[in-house]
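User: Please predict the structure of the protein below. I'd like the answer in structure-token form so I can feed it into my own downstream comparison script.

Assistant: Understood. Taking the following sequence of 326 residues as input:
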Amino acid sequence: MTDDILIKVEQLTRYYGAQSGLQPAVDNISFEVRRGEVLGFLGPNGAGKSTTMRIITGNLAPSHGRITINGIDILDNPKKAKAGIGFLPELPPLYRELTVDEYLQFCARLNRIPRDKQANAIGSARERCGLSNVGKRLIANISKGYQQRVGIAQAIIHSPAVVVLDEPTVGLDPIQIREIRHLIRELSNEHSVILSTHILPEVQATCDRVQIINQGRLVLSDSIEGLIQHMQTSSLRLRTKNRANNDLLLAIEGVVAVDTIDEDYVQIKHKPEINPAAAIARMTVEQNWDLLEMTPERRSLEEIFVDITTAEQTTDEPVEPPGVAA
């Protein structure tokens, strides 16, 4: 249903450079984000992720294209469209000399929350982000993880339909990363979330859907389930107590190669459309090899990411001013 689409990006393009040599930092990308969805926006450094996030949030004008937030065109009615967005940039916009409560009060006023509703808005954002015990502390004196929580609190204080998080776990320790990931999942109960990152486990841990951007272009858009299918390979790892006969395995329908890994293990490569697992299991029984293990091998998300982004490399790389796109 169209009313479930909270962000719609159509043919978005942004050029940098002189008129004589314009280079696309974002090159004709289109996508949608639905209500309650966490979209992972994945790409290597310099791919155009942060540029895209800045355009979506109204902090940078596109060269071409259209963006609607909850049905409102961000160029035609920027003030109303931006009211439906919460944004955490890569460097959180914190005033370290303020306490957490003072800063959230400031953010409530910036977002034009009515005075009689500010206390409830601040209390809700503080509670949801786990900040109830640090409200009176200076932002400068709390940990990096808590500072990220404060950054997320300012992004959701006005209850926006859409929350955009740009590299929210950079520089955090493993415990803090786990806490922020849990918070992001909780945010999806009431908001749609775009998570921009170059950290691969982040996507698998928090997102419903993933898009990979490389050199300003979308090169993959799929669900996490679909991504897992990409990770499947056409090979099996076989372990037997008694050494298997490679020639017999190679004679099984669909098997194209058998490689000995060590005395107990062999790798069996097969045609994608034919799964020889059942035939291999029968053969291990018939030949008394004593089957100990047979598992399908999987490519890691990192391998998929490298394959996709490497295949998309061209000699004409987008040129962006330092600090603008990441």
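That's the full token string. The domain at 2-228+305-311 is CATH 3.40.50.300 (Rossmann fold).
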